[in-house]
Amino acid sequence: MAGQYYLVPISLILAFSYASCVQTVNGRIKLTVGTASGCSATVRFFRDQLVPTYALYGDFLDLEFVPWGRTVKHDNGTFTCQFGPNDCWANRLHRCALNILKGNQKAQLEYMACELAPPYPAYGESSFACIQEVGINIVQADFCLNNPDLDTLDEDAQKAAVEPMAVINLVPTIVFNDNPDRDVRNQASQRLSSMVCFALADDPSSGILGCQI
Ligand SMILES: *[C@@H]1O[C@H](CO)[C@@H](O)[C@H](O)[C@H]1NC(C)=O
Q1: Nearest CA-CA partner of 106 in 63, 60, 45
Q2: How many angstroms separate the first and last alpha carbons of the chain?
Q3: By alpha-carbon position, which residue is closest to atom 9 of ligand 1?
Q4: What class, spelled out in words, does domain 10-206 have in CATH?
């Protein structure tokens, strides 16, 4: 019986200590998400966590996407991707689209949410449907897709993925304020909006109150 007395307080302490891991920086929270086009956990994260959280708290978030996953770039210039050649193709298209949409994170999220929902246009159908849906010039996207030597998008993504993948070793990687942490990532994959809410509520300038665990 005595054990039961301890259950509630300990779970509350855990909940609040997790909640306090994430804080605002100058009133904002940077959220970097490492994705892979063929990854079902990435699909679930966008659908169940990121899109609803952005709808509530997007004004306070600085989003960054790294469509690289577990890609390996070989010395001979070829790529191996976790979900095969289609994954490589789609991840490259995602990098191109995000670059074209740079400075417009709402459109970037809309684009990625489109690609990561059925029928997964780029990954599943080698289609430019999401490119069209967000109003990107198809010729520009196609040119980027086919000319990786003319930009540094692959190298930039490869570099950006190193530390999150080393620390978290799961796709999607989810990193707050450039601090990769595996426990925080696992929490975020279950209750992102709650974590963001608690971080904002901790910062009186946000005006956000009344978070739920
Ligand atoms: C490039 O290198 C990788 C890894 O060593 C190998 O699997 C692949 O077959 C090579 N591809 C070409 C085109 O040489």
Answers
A1: 63
A2: 26
A3: 78
A4: alpha beta
Residue 116 corresponds to which tokens in the numbers above?
Answer: 């990561």
CB 90 within 8 A of CB 84: no
Measured distance CA(113)–CA(130) in Å, rounded: 9
Confidence at residue 19, expressed as pLDDT on a 0 to 100 scale:
46
Ligand 1, CB within 6 Å, residue ranges: 74, 76, 78
Rounded Cα gap, residues 14 and 22, in angstroms: 14
User: What ligand 1 atom has the least distance to the C-alpha of 75?
Assistant: 2
| Cα 19 from chain centre | 19
Dump pLDDT digits (tens) for 28-77: 999 999 999 999 999 999 999 999 999 999 999 999 999 999 999 999 98
Domain boundaries, the chain: 10-206
Residues 6+ apart with CB under 8 A from 132: 138
Mean pLDDT along residues 161-187: 97
Residue with the two structure tokens 């998008």? 153
pTM of the model: 0.90
- Average confidence (pLDDT) over 100-129: 98
Residue 210's pLDDT is what?
A: 87
Mutation test residue for ligand 1: of 72, 74, 81, 88, the one with most atoms within 8 Å of CB: 74
